[in-house]
Design goal:
Elements: E1 6-11, H1 17-26, E2 55-61, E3 68-77, E4 88-96, H2 105-119, E5 124-130, H3 134-142, E6 146-157, E7 160-170
Parallel strand pairs: 4-5
Antiparallel strand pairs: 1-2, 2-3, 3-4, 5-7, 6-7
Length: about 170
């Protein structure tokens, strides 16, 4: 797939809610989701505990008219509310639109998440990924994340037990 003309990675805004909600629903898969498939009536995408400020959005010009369209998002949050853990950020959600896959959007979002975490004073970033999600694990490893632990059989998905893999990396100063 040829590279997409990426226009921006930016903080999400309340006006992105409908597009991000649709992206979230359209990318749902047992490859990465531990919650059941969303069904109508759909709840809000942004809600208490999931405000726009937690999300970074990648925009690309996919349409023939070149208008910007959301190509993906990443959610970056503190892993706990503890002061002793304030130096860490965690990726808690990453989605790339089907039309944007294979064009480097996921990699761009992972890098943007690291930059944002660093900007917010973190010196470490972590994430959790299902063991069978080989594409995501390969992406994270290529961006410096290492496996730091495995929770065997943590989830029962699609009739089988799936390990939860904990990954992390330090954030060197920019």
């Amino acid at each position: 797939m040829p590279a997409l003309p990426l226009l921006a990675v930016r903080p999400a805004a309340p006006a992105d809610e409908a597009e991000l909600a649709e992206l979230d629903r359209s990318t749902w898969s047992t490859l990465h989701a531990v919650l059941p498939r969303p069904t109508p009536p759909y709840g809000p995408f942004f809600e208490e505990g999931h405000p726009p400020g937690d999300f970074l959005v990648a925009e690309a010009a996919e349409a023939e008219d070149g208008a910007p369209r959301v190509a993906g998002y990443v959610r970056v949050v503190p892993p706990t509310p503890l002061a002793s853990n304030a130096h860490v950020r965690q990726i808690r959600g990453l989605a790339v639109a089907g039309w944007a896959r294979g064009a480097g959007v996921g990699r761009l979002l992972v890098r943007a998440a690291c930059d944002e975490a660093r900007r917010r004073g973190a010196n470490r970033i972590t994430l959790r990924v299902l063991a069978h999600n080989e594409p995501a694990r390969a992406l994270y490893a290529s961006e410096g994340f290492a496996v730091e632990g495995v929770l065997p059989g943590e989830f029962f998905l699609n009739g089988r037990y799936v390990d939860d893999v904990c990954m992390g990396r330090s954030l060197d100063p920019a």
